[in-house]
Design a protein that fits this description.
Layout lengths: L13 H14 L12 H8 L3 H13 L3 E4 L3 E4 L17 H25 L2 H19 L5 H15 L2 H26 L2 H19 L3 H21 L2 H7 L15
Length: 257
């Protein structure tokens, strides 16, 4: 069966929408490994976009390892298993999506903190303490503390010494920076929120210093639960104002939170 695609609305970011549509077909199994994609001209006609938009979309899929080019034959769905994890950035730009991302973080960060409590050494503790102080200094200086907040969580992830967790957090971090900027802006609007965040960070540090994995996991999970609560307490006007910054992926890969 030949897959047919619907044309896209003019207001949409066309190359991304073409890539997302092709991605969905591949992940759903409607374009099987080894299947040949329609030609560039055919895709442009089906989607109602320029060949440039199609070319950019296919280039994105190729960079993700989802399709391969064959000399003189065209583009084919890559064989050899499922394509790599990839999020549709359109689905990460709402209050609900930010909460869902924090739910993912809760599972990961709790385990990271527990492993850090088991495996940290003296140098790790110095780096984690330093990250907390650097964050506090940034806030006192009037900064948003986003980079410093991410660096604090990264210092804990380093102490966990699990490269697979690091890679997972590394991937998620491209979506988390915008979300973290928004949540920290929300927290900065209320003194009690800022104080809560600082106390929660110190609770995580204290458990890691004590070498108590159970308490570290509980402290990290509680921190994420409280982050969700604070997100939900933000008023609608705030979310409308900050919406464009929600969880937008960064260009390229960045180090994990």
């Amino acid at each position: 069966m030949v897959t047919r695609f619907q044309s896209l609305q003019p207001t949409e970011r066309l190359s991304d929408r073409v890539a997302n549509a092709l991605d969905a077909e591949i992940r759903a199994g409607r374009l099987l490994p080894g299947a040949k994609l329609p030609t560039e001209a055919e895709l442009a006609e089906q989607f109602g976009v320029s060949r440039t938009s199609v070319r950019e979309a296919v280039s994105r899929l190729k960079s993700l390892g989802m399709v391969d080019s064959r000399q003189g034959s065209g583009m084919f769905v890559r064989e050899g298993g499922l394509p790599p994890l990839s999020f549709d950035s359109r689905l990460t730009s709402s209050q609900a999506a930010v909460i869902q991302m924090v739910e993912v973080r809760r599972a990961l960060e709790a385990e990271v903190a527990g492993l850090a409590a088991e495996r940290r050494n003296a140098d790790d503790l110095v780096r984690i303490r330093s990250a907390i102080e650097t964050l506090a200094q940034a806030v006192r200086a009037g900064g948003n503390g986003v980079a410093e907040d991410l660096a604090f969580h990264r210092s804990i992830a380093d102490a966990a010494r699990n490269p697979f967790l690091l890679d997972t957090l590394n991937y998620l971090s491209q979506y988390l920076r915008g979300a973290t900027r928004v949540t920290r802006a929300n927290e900065a609007r209320r003194i009690d929120f800022s104080a809560q965040v600082a106390d929660e960070h110190h609770d995580i540090l204290s458990a890691i210093e004590a070498g108590d994995p159970l308490r570290a996991r509980q402290a990290a999970a509680s921190h994420m639960d409280n982050a969700i609560r604070r997100i939900r307490l933000a008023d609608p006007a705030f979310w409308q104002q900050e919406g464009d910054a929600l969880a937008q992926p960064l260009a390229g890969r960045v180090r994990p939170a």
